[in-house]
Fold each of these.
Amino acid sequence: MKATDFNLEAELKFDPSMGITSFKDTRLVILDANALGLLRQSLVEKLGIEDAREIFLKFGFEHGYSDFLQMKAAFGDQFDSDMDMLASGPVIHTWEGLVHAAPTAIKYDRETGEFFFTGIWSNSYEAQQYLAFNHDATEPVCWSLMGYASGWCTAFFGHPLLAIEPVCVGKGDEHCEWKIQSPEAWGDEAKVYMKALQPLYDKIQLSIKE
């Protein structure tokens, strides 16, 4: 099965009477983008940008990680290649199936774990929400999406990988470009994200060793 053949929408169950949808009966998704934007803005105002960023990064990472494991358990032997399985998350569908991304470069080595990926968000709703409530950003703002892509790829390889947006709609650009690579390969720009995700990486590494 090619990644492009996987239909995430078929895995979503929509209940119009409640205005929500569930993914594999495990979690709820807010459908109204404006409602999610209001929640995000409220957290920023009440907790500050650092704590709000940490919450959304962890939220995205944990679900990206668990979604990959569920996908692998359910469909792993049906994918034509490792790349198709990997691409079925951060490339074709990312977080709730609402954002579509186009890959621009993919390089990876299963044996060494080396991984480098770049892509473009074609519908960055997190950035649009940010612009609706704020002026242009000074940093990447698609926190949950970055967390999701990080978690998905980390689960795939079994060691830490980090997604960051060097280019972002929230910063005034026309689209969002993002990269996924090891935290060490990123350098200093990864520090604010690693502060939030390091405990999750450590927990994963411990479980792998056990």
Amino acid sequence: MPDRFRIDGHLAPTSPLSPRAAFERLPWLARTQVKYEPADLWEADTAQLPPILADLRRSLRAFARDEVAPAALMVDAAEGDEHGSSADRARSVLERAARAGLLSDMLPRPIGSASPASFRYPLHLTAALKTEELAAVDGGLMLLICAHSLGIVPVLLSGDVGLIRRRLLPALRANRAGDLHVFAFAITEPQAGSDVEEGHGASRLDPGTVARRSPGGWRITGRKVFISGGDIAASVVVFAALEGEGLASWTAFLVPSDAPGFRVVRTEHKMGMRASGAAELELDDVFVPDDQVVGGVRDGWALNRATLNISRLPVAAMGVGFARAATDAAIDFACSFRLGGKLLISYQDVQLSIADMLASTQAARAMVWTAAGRRQPLQREASAAKVLCTDTAIAVCARAMDLLGNHAVLHGERVEKAYRDARLTQIFEGTNQINRLAMVEDAQEQLAAAMARLADTRRT
């Protein structure tokens, strides 16, 4: 390997004191245990995956590079241009994602678009691979594409074959043809954010969105806020309490966006993930027939919590994607910008910063892949991954901004965008504070047993 692959402060890989050159001189048996070839970091991680998932990760990376990246900065900068070229560009990306199968990959071919072989592995693992690859290029377009899957999960978890056949499968077929039919997931209310993501708070909540019995179905009245993709969704899974009851009566309803009384009030102007709308939805006496109840009556709380346990893992992977984006941008900058006549990468403190960013991102990814590898996601692991990975994303982005200096605030340098996009991941799917409480909630029996054991020890 030529010496041009050497940076200041390090020996060339061909030096006899380089570990790689030294390993070559070891006996054959030792070489089989310790010798390895240099590899691109992304490819080295991908090689750890089963072949079907490695191929999926490569195809997602190619789609992100070819279809998402060219539109990312333009769409982000032009938020609010609802009927202009930026909105058309975002919709065009979404249509291409639909034709590529990214809006129908929750079910296998020929019903959906995913490879049947990939279903040997949990859906939340493939979803995590998807969100990381798209987030590494753009958070807003990633959410525009991926929020749709969140709306589908409670329908699948309901196990209602009739509802799936009538409502979901036609939508998946339409998406494969590029005729968009987007789903959304609506739980948050103006007076209840984290309360609907944590049991103790929910037990004290007076629900604002209510369903009352009506001949042949239900009539829903209320508002939902900050609904990702709610502005473009054709079908919205709306969670409503039964009239006169609390959140224990929560029931999920599949509401078509063209139903009389359903209205998109507005979309928020956001700090990050700007290509994806966060909508406020109004339901004014919206009728939903009995056959569009998702799961059973009063099953909504269980569907909500199960959906969150699944979706927190892709959100954790978003954090990995943003950390990766910031790290890649910092490396590119350090390898091209000169200070004092030398490239930044030649300075040891810059090398230390990059090493920390690489290590943090690698550790976060390992946590996601481990937790998402379980067939049934554990609440404590999903919440822990969401907390650690999204906090890591902010820390890595901040470190990258320090390295770039005044260049860090420039829109085209990618780091400021990754920072803005990453901030939202600490809030949705339950704030990170709520997720920490979810970890304690899931370990409650063990903690209570420790309390009892220690209390008995003190008494004796």
